[in-house]
Write a structure and sequence with these properties.
It contains 14 helices and 2 strands. With 352 residues, the chain is mainly α. It has 2 domains: 173 residues, no CATH class; 111 residues, no CATH class.
């Protein structure tokens, strides 16, 4: 059985290698062959493109140009952040969008802003604003709108194609879109000079996806993590409820699969000291549910069979508590994820 963890490492984009310069007596330096090679412009080229947009936007007064100078002279600022700050400097709507996307206390957006889909806007403005916006949402784990925003632009139009493919793959991976994520990771390898941290995280995501198995405990843990993320973002609607139903169905399937075969000669009195239940119509309390064995990660099938017999009689909240007991001896990371998930769901349910 394989267990997976969410990779939410979102490294900031650094300055990338600029275009090659060649003296007259030198031969061009050959880049590694690739299906498609993307290149990030140098700092000087990105600055010139940003200033050209700012000037064409009519923002060429002395105060604005001084602010532009300060943005581009700041040390160690990622290239994409400098471009985004320039766009915010020249367009109040862009500034508002980026501030909202970066504010962890602001409500998560429910759709891509119209400004990012306005084809009348200059491509440089729209594409790079969308990339900066999607990057900010990714940092807040708002993967749905981050991915939709990135899919509305082209990687050839952005100032930082490595950031484009990296944040696209992070969103797809986090939403468990295996094949699209793999394609984005492959395209990241096509970017000349892509930061090593991007490549390292992408390699880890790819390795994790090789371990994915549909509807196993790892799959369930990842789904529960996604549900918890959506609930934290205030998204408890139909889509979240559907994922919850899928999780419960998968857990039920696991219980059935792990149930031992029926004994043809059962002991008529397997428990010499059975716990009395004076009212058979009342579900048995959680306190008498079978406890899991001390060996980590191993489920006692006999105890599981007892739980199976009680499962359909338990109220919703007690079913969740029973599932916590079922996973009690899993490795700590997976156990904590499952317990936190069911605790949140139990708190959200009305009292019986």
């Amino acid at each position: 059985m394989y267990f997976r963890r969410w990779f939410l490492l979102l490294a900031v984009a650094g300055l990338l290698a600029g275009p090659l310069t060649v003296r007259a007596e030198e031969k061009p330096v050959k880049e590694p062959q690739s299906f498609l090679m993307y290149r990030t412009p140098s700092l000087e080229v990105a600055r010139a493109l940003s200033l050209d947009w700012l000037t064409k936007a009519g923002k060429n007064d002395e105060a604005t140009l001084q602010a532009f100078q300060a943005i581009w002279e700041a040390a160690d600022r990622p290239l994409l952040d400098r471009v985004a700050d320039t766009l915010a400097l020249g367009n109040a709507d862009a500034a508002k969008l980026l501030n909202e996307a970066r504010d962890p206390s602001a409500p998560a957006p429910k759709e891509v802003p119209a400004l990012l889909k306005d084809r009348k806007q200059p491509t440089f403005f729209r594409a790079n604003l969308a990339l900066a916006y999607a990057k900010a949402l990714s940092g807040r784990r708002v993967y749905e709108e981050s991915l939709e925003t990135l899919q509305a632009i082209k990687p050839t139009d952005v100032i930082d194609p490595a950031a484009y493919f990296f944040h696209t793959s992070v969103a797809q991976f986090s939403l468990m879109q295996r094949e699209p994520a793999r394609k984005s990771i492959a395209r990241l390898a096509d970017v000349a000079g892509a930061p090593e941290r991007y490549r390292a995280v992408a390699s880890m995501m790819d390795a994790q996806m090789n371990l994915w198995k549909d509807r196993d405990l790892g799959w369930i843990a990842d789904k529960m993590g996604n549900i918890e993320r959506r609930l934290d973002l205030g998204r408890g609607g139909d889509q979240t409820k559907k994922i919850q139903r899928d999780v419960i169905a998968a857990l039920d399937d696991l219980i059935r699969q792990m149930e031992p075969p029926q004994n043809p000669n059962p002991n008529p009195n397997p428990n010499p000291n059975p716990t009395p239940n004076p009212n058979p119509s009342t579900p048995l309390p959680i306190s008498i549910l079978p406890k899991m064995p001390p060996t980590p990660g191993i489920v006692d099938e006999r105890e599981l069979a007892k739980l199976r017999g009680l499962w359909g009689k338990l109220p919703e909240k007690e079913r969740f508590q029973a599932m916590i007991e079922l996973t009690r001896n899993l490795p700590s990371a997976e156990r904590q994820s499952i317990e936190e998930y069911f605790k949140k769901l139990a708190q959200a349910l009305p009292s019986e």
